[in-house]
Amino acid sequence: MADELKKTKLNQDFIIFRECLIVGDVDAPNIIEFWDKRSNFIASTYETTKEMYFEHTAKEFEKLNLLPDGAQLCLWFEDDLFCQVNMWFILSYLAEHPSLNLFRIFPVIVDEADKWKGFGKATPEQLEQAYDSKVKFSANDILLGKNLWKSYCSNNREHLGALSKTHSICFRYLEEVCQAQLDRFPDDGSLGRPHKLIKELIKSGKRDFDEVFYMFSNREGIYGFGDFQVKEMIKILKKNDQ
């Protein structure tokens, strides 16, 4: 997406958030321990190193601390759960920087069937259109993001469900997205919604990963999982079947 944004007439001062907070432990008492916990998870799960994580994620994120008072910061996030969890974290962090002017940039959705594909198909012209339609976060919107992150971290299902019913123009499909998160880990300990679908696809004879990933993404695009996350779920299912 950063490459596509470079083709536009928009401000080219980007901060890229390279994370997938939808998986792995995220509960930490402070930002230092958070980076340490996340670097351990990413390094052990995705065959990289803690040093690479700190260089490409933590160090990049710290650019937020260098923004001057009153700066305009636009959050380019899609509506799926993957992107929303990342955005909740950032809003929670930025809640401590009230001098910034925060805006939400929504993907331009031409076909409702593509609503979970976000910026993936956007042309430079559509990205400029998205920017022109940006919406400012109010203090209440930022507080909502902070509380959503807190509920997500602590796995407070009741609180997350209650927050999902909050109306805010800065959070599209919030109730639907939060329900998708709750469906990942049912109260009765049964198989979660994403794992159920993957198991169903494999049982139906789908063995090629690309085919499984394509069909999963078409049916459960609300999760926004990338190939790494789907591969991990397949690995877990195979392990549990042994």
Rg for CA atoms: 18 Å
Biggest sheet descriptor: 3 strands, mixed
Backbone shape: globular
Oligomer: single chain
Q: What's the arrangement of strands in the largest beta sheet?
A: 1-2-3
How are helices and strands ordered from N to C?
Answer: HHHEHEHEHHHHHH
Terminal-residue CA separation = 40 Å
Specify the number of helices.
11
Structural class of the helices, strands and pairings? mainly alpha
Q: What features would you describe in this structure?
A:
This protein is globular. The protein is built from eleven helices and three strands. The longest helix has 16 residues, at 139-154. It is mainly α. A three-stranded mixed β-sheet has the order 1-2-3, with no helix packed on it. Helix 4 crosses helix 6 and helix 9 packs across helix 11 (227-241).
Quick overview:
The chain has 242 residues and is mainly alpha-helical.
List the helices and strands and how they pair.
Elements: H1 2-5, H2 31-45, H3 50-61, E1 72-76, H4 81-94, E2 101-105, H5 124-132, E3 135-136, H6 139-154, H7 157-163, H8 174-184, H9 193-203, H10 209-219, H11 227-241
Parallel strand pairs: 1-2
Antiparallel strand pairs: 2-3
Helix pairs in contact: 2-3, 4-6, 6-7, 7-8, 9-11
Question: Could you list some keywords that capture this structure?
Answer:
242 residues, mainly alpha, 11 helices, 3 strands, 5% strand, globular
